[in-house]
Amino acid sequence: MSSTKGLIDPKKLTDFSARALQKVGVPEEHAKITAGLLVKTDLMGIDSHGVAHLANFYVAWIKAGAIKVNPDMKLASKAPTTGILDADEGLGFVAGYKAMNEAMDRAEKYGSGFISVVNSTHFGAASVYSTMALERDMIGISMTQGGKGIIAPGGKGEGIGLNVLSWAIPTKNEAPFILDMCTGVVAGGKIEIAARTGQPLPEGWALKADGTPATAPDEVAGILPLGGTPVLGAYKGFGLTVLVDILCSTLSGGLTVPEITEPKDGDSNHFFGAIKIDGFMSADTFKEKMDAMAKAYHNLPKASGVEKITLPGEIEKQKTQERSKGLSLHPQVVESLVNLAKELGIEYDL
Q1: Is pTM beyond 0.85 here?
Q2: Cα 168–chain centre separation
Q3: CA–CA gap between residue 316 and residue 313 (Å, rounded)
Q4: Regarding the domain with residue range 186-223, which homologous superfamily does it belong to in the CATH classification?
């Protein structure tokens, strides 16, 4: 281990992940981009989408031929602020990184930029891309089409996508606003974590094949849309699911989740956007107003026993500060990395 506390150095974990990806044929630049975003995910506290997926998702899919290690990614554009990136079934992390940078470059010049991505693969956590815009005083947008995992209102079984959207908005001194949400009641990764830790599922997350509530990961036949049941607002989650699919898939020329008849491991389409704040007002003024807004939320009357009303992004900031000193990975995740090192013949030096 990298410390006496049993914590793993994020830099060492990034280097290890990049070496593993290079070992299965990923070019060095692409491997470093992917590894960096995977570890950034763990640093932000999104344990379901970080290096826990390195071996059983990305390396496995590469070895199975589901992800191309040397894709020919091509950008087509019919307007200064918009474009479509064909990722040629390459790593979703690389496609996402390139598309988000392209959106920001266009926003720098024209005030906004939007890139829809087709023929890509699973890109991890959406917020690692939206937050790229924060350092450039922009509002960042990231969305992705997920695999079939949600039950449509009135439907039976998994029929629509576990789609995801994220927005990141800069502040001055407060934590940046970072919204990262699945359009289901819960992300599929939460089911993975429950299986990994042996925890039961809260009633209302998912259903069994017979339509009754699932209370264990191996019982899940489908996750409910955000809102749960129609009477509680399931059509809001359903509507968001369709919206994300339109921007990621229909707009890029790809297929929406219910249109896919022959799913392939990792297949996905994405959407990225960047909005330059200086097009509205000075970035400094805006960030000061964001700080004031955050304080107003913090000062709202609180229920008994509640110390603070927490805004999206505040937990991520806290987690990143804590975990930058060292990451504590679940034993099963560590085991997967140890086994991966043995399988690939690389040194496990974490």
Answers
A1: yes
A2: 12
A3: 5
A4: Hypothetical oxidoreductase yiak; domain 3 (3.30.60.50)
For residue 3, the model assigns a pLDDT of 37
For 335, phi then psi, to 5°, come to -60, -40
Please report which helix (H) or strand (E) contains residue 298, including its range.
Answer: helix 283-298
Both tokens assigned to 231 = 């009477």
The amino acid sitting at 188 is: G
- Give the ranges where 176-245 is alpha helix by DSSP (H): 188-197, 234-245
DSSP track, 112-156? EEEEEEEEEE----THHHHGGGGGGTEEEEEEE---EEEPPTT--
Classified by CATH at the fold level, domain 10-185+224-280+293-316+328-344 comes out as: Ribosomal Protein S8; Chain: A, domain 1 (3.30.1370)
What residues have CB less than 8 Å from 281, skipping those under 6 apart?
none
Q: What are the per-10-residue average pLDDT scores of the chain (350 residues)?
A: 66 98 98 98 94 96 96 97 98 98 98 98 97 98 94 88 97 98 89 87 89 90 91 94 97 95 89 98 98 97 94 96 94 95 95
User: Based on the number of CB atoms within 10 Å of its own CB, is 243 exposed (0-12), middle (13-18) or buried (19 or more)?
Assistant: middle
Q: Rounded to the nearest 5°, which phi and psi values hold at 307?
A: -85, -35
Alpha helix stretches (DSSP H) within 198-274: 234-245
Where do we find the tokens 């500060």?
A: 321
